[in-house]
Specification:
The protein is an all-alpha fold. Helices cover 58% and strands 0% of the residues. The radius of gyration is 50 Å and the shape is elongated.
Length: 663
């Protein structure tokens, strides 16, 4: 090539680099997808002019990554012959492809990792949920770095501590709304719900202030915070408030499928076995494709478990089996037993439980009792270890079951074994001593009724150690008195002496009891008529005598017209309006005309005096009534006449308030 051609080639490459530099991001310029595609084309032109230009190849790889073409980037690196280190770019491509283990392998091959390698390693470890290692990497980065990205690293660090759930490493940093949100997550992970709720409320306020100019972004960012607030409220038992928040977020239709899945899953947890239709609708949104990269393993496992529980509540045995096959939880057999029980297959439900576990054995016994198989349930409960069998709840259940079958011998043996086992147990071994006091007392009462006073005394001795009291001591004396009088006498000395109170008049209590009625005292004789009476002396001191005050009887008050020879009215206690002798029905008002003298009908105002008698029907009505009373046979139908005289005239009644006169 000529010298002039070489100069032209170098000049052309220089111009291409200038065009490439113009596409670099600055404070005022942020490249878009098309700009990265232009950068790739420019790099290809440079490589066509100079195939050995490693810088152009490196720029091309970076442009491909920024354009999202990670597969093309990996192919270019695999086929390249440049001796440059592109381990970071390759590891990042695997990270973008969600091939996290491959990315970590590439990073492990770096001999002298730099700051960018460590930050990428921390991101990969966080995605792999290796939070302890991730915490150590971030701690080293923060200690060794000194640039303008400290706030972002602190935000990521607080996200890691939130996943650790360690109260000693809880971070409370609030320089940005992201850090404040992570602070709330930190408190929620350790169960400090009040502090978590306060931090999340502050994060929501800060986020709204930060995105106040962009309405689309503010709902998306605040939605994540609101769902976390709902979770905190739900864990505090405030399900109604949490449900309102979840529905509000879902109503905005967030674009993040992970946020929608979490809110929908939490609503399913609130519904439980109620509102199954809504839960079925929510589970579809919580099980869409693509959640593998959006949610961590614990979140995905919770959604899968709720899906299986929903199938259990709807008694879908085959679907529940299918979902449980892909589920890795300890309670798989419990869920399977639940769905079989709801389907009516109780024996199959019991057979699928591992009865070597006391909790699952208790569950099996509960299922048998629900099915009515008491004999098999008692056999299962009898297999419980002593530490479980002699607990208050289980022991009382076994006693009730034995007594229901009238097996008192089994009850006696069970209670004896419970007494012996609790006597051998160290005093500091159990936390349920309050409940055991009830067991000791009931055991003693049972053995006293069955005549086994020695066993009852042992139970009362243990009870007295837990609850020393006079009642227990008295029962203990009673128990020992049946087989060891000396011991009973010795214990009875601990009881307080009985002292009759001088201020109590026993005689007045005996004779004047208003509840039991007065009765004559036994042994007291009435004085005879000829017996001498002790004369009263004026100087006798009555201070020591109980002065009896005679109650003055109230004079009976009788009605003014009381007749002792006549029987009282049986309806005298009823109100007047309810008595049978009332002339008018309740609510009926007596016409006023009955209380005054009848007036002669003079006709309408302005009519002739002669015509008034024509329209006066009072005499005709009276005559008609008298004629009807004298007849012994039914009266014949009246002859048809004018309409005005179709029926007998009616006496004018008093006009009712608000009504109309009817003729």
């Amino acid at each position: 090539m000529s010298k002039k051609g070489t100069i032209d080639k170098k000049e052309e490459i220089s111009n291409l680099y200038k065009d490439l530099a113009a596409l670099r991001p600055t404070e005022d310029f942020e490249p878009v997808q098309d700009d990265y595609d232009k950068a790739v084309k420019i790099c290809n032109k440079i490589l066509n002019l100079d195939p050995a230009d490693a810088t152009a190849f490196h720029c091309k790889i970076v442009a491909l990554i920024q354009a999202g073409k990670v597969q093309d980037c990996l192919k270019q690196v695999a086929n390249s012959k440049f001796e440059i280190s592109l381990q970071f770019e390759v590891a990042y491509c695997h990270y973008r492809n969600n091939d996290l283990h491959k990315a970590l392998e590439v990073l492990d091959t770096v001999t002298t990792p730099g700051l960018k390698h460590n930050e990428l390693r921390a991101q990969v470890l966080y995605k792999l949920e290796q939070f302890e290692k991730c915490f150590s990497v971030y701690r080293d980065i923060i200690r060794s770095s000194d640039d303008s990205y400290d706030k972002e690293r602190a935000t990521n660090m607080s996200a890691v501590t939130a996943q650790l759930g360690d109260s000693a490493r809880t971070m409370d940093t609030r320089e940005s709304y992201e850090q404040t949100y992570n602070t709330g997550c930190n408190y929620a992970s350790v169960g400090d719900w009040a502090a978590a709720e306060e931090a999340l409320a502050s994060a929501e306020k800060a986020a709204r202030e930060y995105w106040e100019d962009e309405e689309d972004e503010v709902e998306e960012e605040v939605g994540i915070i609101k769902v976390q607030q709902g979770y905190v409220m739900q864990r505090q038992g405030r399900d109604k408030e949490a449900q309102t928040i979840y529905n509000q977020v879902l109503r905005n239709k967030p674009s993040d499928i992970g946020l929608t899945a979490v809110a929908s899953n939490n609503l399913i947890a609130i519904n439980k076995d109620q509102n199954i239709f809504d839960s079925k609708k929510r589970i579809k949104a919580a099980t869409v494709e693509g959640l593998e990269t959006k949610l961590n393993s614990s979140q995905r496992s919770a959604i899968a478990r709720n899906n299986a529980l929903l199938a259990m509540f709807t008694a879908q045995v085959d679907l529940c089996k299918q979902l449980l096959s892909a589920l890795d939880t300890e309670d798989k057999d419990l869920i399977m037993a639940g769905v079989l029980t709801r389907a009516g297959k109780h024996q199959e439900a019991v057979s699928c439980l591992d009865t070597s576990d006391p909790i699952k054995l208790l569950t099996a016994a509960h299922l048998l009792l629900a099915a009515g198989d008491q004999d098999q349930a008692v056999k299962l409960l009898a297999k419980l270890p002593d530490a479980w069998k002699y607990r208050v709840g289980v022991l009382s259940s076994l006693v009730c079951l034995y007594l229901a079958r009238d097996n008192r011998d089994a009850v006696a043996g069970l209670l004896k074994d419970a007494v012996e086992w609790n006597k051998k147990r160290p005093s500091s071994a159990g936390a349920g001593d309050d409940g055991m006091a009830t067991v000791w007392r009931k055991t003693a009462e049972f053995h006293l009724k069955t005549g086994e006073a020695k066993v009852a005394a042992q139970s009362l001795e243990e009870l007295y150690k837990l609850e020393p009291g006079m009642t227990t001591l008295a029962q203990l004396v009673l128990a020992y008195s049946k087989f060891d009088l000396a011991k009973a006498l010795e214990i009875s000395r601990k009881l307080p002496p009985f002292k009759a109170s001088d201020s109590v008049d026993i005689e007045s209590l005996d004779t004047g009891s208003w509840a039991m009625g007065s009765r004559a005292k036994a042994g007291k004789k009435t004085p005879k008529s000829g017996a001498e009476k002790t004369p009263k002396t004026g100087g006798e001191d009555k201070s020591d005598l109980a002065v009896k005050k005679k109650r003055s009887k109230k004079k009976k008050r009788l009605p003014k017209n009381y007749n002792p020879n006549a029987d009282p009215d049986p309806e005298r206690w009823l109100p007047r309006r309810e008595r049978t002798g009332l002339k008018y029905m309740p609510g009926y008002r007596k016409p006023r005309k009955d209380k005054r003298k009848a007036e002669k009908f003079t006709g309408a105002q302005g009519t002739d005096q002669g015509k008034s008698e024509t329209y006066d029907y009072s005499n005709r009505v009276t005559g008609a009534k008298e004629a009807a009373a004298k007849q012994t046979s039914p009266a014949p139908e009246p002859a048809p006449g004018p309409r005005q005289q179709k029926g007998p005239g009616r006496t004018q009644q008093k006009k009712k308030k608000g009504g109309k006169n009817k003729f």
